[in-house]
Amino acid sequence: MKALLRCTTALAGLALSAQIALAGPETVSGPGVNPECFKPWSAETKFFKWEAKKAPFRIAVVNGFVGNTWRIQMIKTAKAYAEDPAVKDKIAEFKVVSTGTDAPAQLGAIEDFINQGFDAIVTIAVSPDGFDRVIRLADKNNVVIVPFDNVLDTDKVMQVNEDQLAMGRMWAQFVIDELKAKGVTSGKILEVRGLPGNSVDRDRSIGINEVLAANGGPWDIVQVVGNWDDGTTQKVVADAIAVHGQFEAVVGQGGSNGVIQALKDAGHPWVPVAGESENGYRKAVAQYSADGLKGISIGQSPGLVAVAMKAAISAMEGNVMPQLISVPLPVATYKDLKDGQNYWSDLPDNFFTVNEFPPCGVNISGPAIMSQSEADVK
Amino acid sequence: MRQSSIKRWFFQNVGFASALALLTVIYLSYNMLHPRGFSSAVAIQNTNEAAAIAFVAMAQTLPVLLGGLDLSVGAVMTLTNCIASVLVNGSPGQIALGIFLTLASGTAFGFMNGCIVVFGRIQPIIATLATGAIAIGLALLVRPKPGGDVDGDLGWALTNSVRDFADTYGIADGGDAWWLRPFADIPVPFLLVVFVTVLVWVPFRRSVTGRTVYAIGSAEGAAFMSGLPIARAKIAAFTLGGFFAACGGLYLAIQTSSGNADLQQAGAYTLNSIAAVVLGGTSLLGGVGSAVGSLVGAMILRVISFYFRILDIDPLLQPLIEGVVLLVAVSFGAIRTLRVKNKLDLFR
């Protein structure tokens, strides 16, 4: 018992000393650098400051799952942005790896890059938890880790994302407003959800349902799960139409091409639709908006990777950075769609139109990255 | 005499020997290419990444030796990962109890698999397909959202070197005791895998039950006619598989200090475990191979992907290259087909 007690005391002492010994970012008061690009998430967001390092830096991107268009576009954007004249001179070495949906492999890759002496690691986390050890190692070695898109449930690292809750709210609000203009204040609304168990899916759905519940109604909300995938979405939407007959509107988190295809195949009249930013979806909205397909398109942009890289560079230069960076939502409704500008009628359906963030100096457009070879972008 | 016994061992274990040689070559060159190769930090990172898949590959070995496949190993790992994320925290006593319960639940799950296969007379691959889904369902019940709070010091101590372990718990003068010096740089996960292998696998392999597992894989009819305890051996094999999978899940929980009922990850681990077993020289037909071989196979799988981090390879080409290298590596095991004297040998 005595030994146990001594052991725990030693342990507690050690834990304390370990806390003190940790290096890493210093928490400072704002405002941060370049607020148009690095907008703090909320008024409570903390600010971090790392010890300034000298350029050029070694940066790695550790992706998880690879194999859908979004991830491929993200990887291509990362590579193109590393060659961008604004940052090219600041990057000594740039590596991209994809580890699959395997947490130890992703943690291992991050730790390996820390061991190799990389200065910053940009990552899409395969799980919102479990990164404590690599964060500890990164802080010890003064390495900046920047999760984006699928972020971590921690406030110990700098993260970059779009506000998914706001995105859900905006989708629902648009649909409500369009229905009101049509004179519809109640009826069935189809909600297409994304990958179950994912924080992005959860937040978007909360936002959607919050606004629908607060506005008019009663709305009869039918939920189907489309996994953000065109094929799956098309199937579940077709099933829902077969079962429920007609919907007043469709709010889809992703796989928007599938939503359109299912509506078309079923001969469903065009109704207000909220969706992601696939080119095919925008093409359809532009074509059929006069017939009633009043659409809104908000995208989770693959270009977030470039903002995350820029944030990492800025942090290594010793600038004051917000802990959680909110990237503005790229919104386009049927009123703002312009061919060749925010959608491309002569290009394939399956790429994401929103890719650039002018306030951040990220000017790599979707078609430039997906339909031309990488040589052209450089 | 001595030389001939080595030679005999080699010819009896061509698959394992070539896997070991392959691992040695690729691991040494990886370390030579790595800017901090041959250092403790790199070894710690490598073993951390490989530990979970190594345990799951060992779990897969036993059903494969029987001539079957266990499609639930990844799911049992996920289930025990979620259980550990709930139980492994609190006072040292509670932590020990949590570890025990985690391992016990995985073992019990394996026991259930074995009973279904033996008494239900269902093919292992189908039985475990179903029980794997049950395990994922239970995992989601235990942990609907990723998270958890595994003891932080335990996590730090078990995912670092022996010196850090001693330092964390204040034993052996914080890791500086003279008698600890020779082992101070060894990664703890490596030792854990070795301990489990030596304390669990080796005694099992030498027992009658263990040898019966091999006999069943070679010729079940002959094993039965020889009066070997077939039912006991099958149940023991699946139970032990469940235990190894639980070791993997427990380690994953300690490493990530959380649990995650991730369906895709479970599937990936099941498939990778089969690949590791084959790479390690175990025959999918059963009766030939060992869990030690699967450890080597799991390491090979991991080391292949290590290369992508030190070499400059187009990220979109990496899966293709990984697949090709894997195919070449597996083909090493098939080299024996080039020197068969009789075509009938191929059916062995």
List keywords for this structure.
heterodimer; A: 378 residues; alpha/beta; Rossmann fold; 2 domains; 4-stranded parallel sheet; 13 helices; 16 strands; B: 348 residues; mainly alpha; ABC transporter involved in vitamin B12 uptake, BtuC; 16 helices; 73% helix
Question: Would you kindly provide a written description of the structure presented here, covering whatever features stand out?
Answer:
The complex is a heterodimer of chains A (378) and B (348). Chain A has 378 residues and is an alpha/beta fold. Chain A folds into two domains: 25-161 and 302-328, 3-Layer(aba) Sandwich (Rossmann fold), CATH 3.40.50; 164-298, Response regulator (Rossmann fold, 3-Layer(aba) Sandwich), CATH 3.40.50. In chain A, 40% of the residues lie in helices and 18% in strands. Chain A contains 13 helices and 16 strands. In chain A, the strands form four sheets. A six-stranded mixed β-sheet of chain A has the order 10-9-11-12-13-16, sandwiched between helices. A four-stranded parallel β-sheet of chain A has the order 5-4-6-7, with helices on both faces. Chain A has a three-stranded antiparallel β-sheet with strand order 1-3-14, covered by helices on one side. Chain A is elongated. Chain A starts with a helix and ends with a helix. Mean pLDDT of chain A is 86; it is low at 7-21 and 372-378. Chain B has one domain (40-347): ABC transporter involved in vitamin B12 uptake, BtuC, CATH 1.10.3470. Chain B is 73% helix and 0% strand. Chain B has helices at residues 2-12, 14-33, 40-65, 73-87, 92-119, 124-142, 152-158, 162-169, 172-175, 188-206, 208-218, 220-225, 230-256, 263-279, 291-310, 318-333. The two termini of chain B are 29 Å apart. The model of chain B has no long low-confidence stretch (mean pLDDT 90). The interface between A and B is large, with 48 and 52 residues.
The CATH topology of chain B, please? ABC transporter involved in vitamin B12 uptake, BtuC
Annotated CATH topology of the largest domain in chain A: Rossmann fold
The general outline of chain B is globular
The rounded Rg of chain A comes to 23 Å
* Helix fraction of chain B by DSSP (H/I, runs of at least 4): over 70%
Instruction: Report the CATH C-level class of chain B.
Output: Mainly Alpha
The helix/strand order of chain A is: HEEEEHHEHEHEEHEHEHEHEHEHEEEHH
Taking the alpha carbons of the first and last residues of chain B, their distance comes to 29 Å
Strand content of chain B: under 5%
**End-to-end separation of chain A:** 67 Å
What's the Cα radius of gyration of chain B?
21 Å
- Taking all residues together, what is the mean pLDDT of chain A? 86
Largest interface: A-B, 48 and 52 residues
Structural class of chain A: alpha/beta
Averaged pLDDT of chain B? 90
What is the strand content of chain A?
15-25%
| Full CATH superfamily name of the largest domain in chain A | Response regulator
**Total beta strand runs of chain A:** 16
